[in-house]
Amino acid sequence: MAKKSAKSKGFRRQNAKKPYLSKRDIALLCVLVAAVAIGAFLLFRYDDGALKVTDGAVVADGDNWLIVNGSNTRGGARYFKLGEIGEIEGYSREAASVLTDANLPEYTFTAETEDVAADTITVACSHSSAAALANYAASTLSGIGGSEVGEPQSAELSGHAVQYFLYTVAPTEGEADEAEAEEAANGEASEAETDDTFRKTLCGYIDAGHDSCVVFRAESNVDAAEAYPADDAFVAALEQAIAAVTLENADR
Known about the structure:
- With 252 residues, the protein is α+β, with helices and mostly antiparallel strands.
- It is built from 4 helices and 13 strands.
- Strand 9 and strand 10 (160-169) form a beta hairpin.
- The radius of gyration is 32 Å and the shape is elongated.
- The protein starts with 22 loop residues before the first helix and ends in a 5-residue tail after the last strand.
């Protein structure tokens, strides 16, 4: 009687299953996991210079800090110190928060004498480059009635590259007249007042750290256009204000 083959007896040759991942794949996966873990650790430990915030308020050691919100994301405010502002000779300094964010200070310097070009000089910060903000501001102001806006210019003042422009605003009698007419038509007592002053302003910008800039605004109100201070006098006031600023972390 013929012998039955191993196959007929129910034996089957089993092919060894290959692992889903080769030794090389496993090694690469381990390297990848390690790299991700190291990256997460470094990201967690990385100090980008953001100021500490406690109960919604920035923790600051000084009352003259120049602070900017360096975040472009909603609800993700991250505050950075760009530097400090000192005193400007002939002016008294007062700090206040900008309307949109209580953590962002704006400093107003008010003239204490009459022999200065600018009645007030304000200093604040913006998360923008100096050139971009100067061009944007000049373009925006050009669309406002009664304004005459000069072209943005570049200069070197107090050791900083500066972008600046000047603009003037004439009295807005027409706007006041329209407001008074509308109130009268509604049976209301008119409270509209005519702005009978001529205003000349110089806006200046210098780049700082964290892709931001420091913003300066020198302003003077006079009774007639003929009384406007000279442009050179405004530039000198800007230079004086810039000299009062000490920047830090300019390379960030």
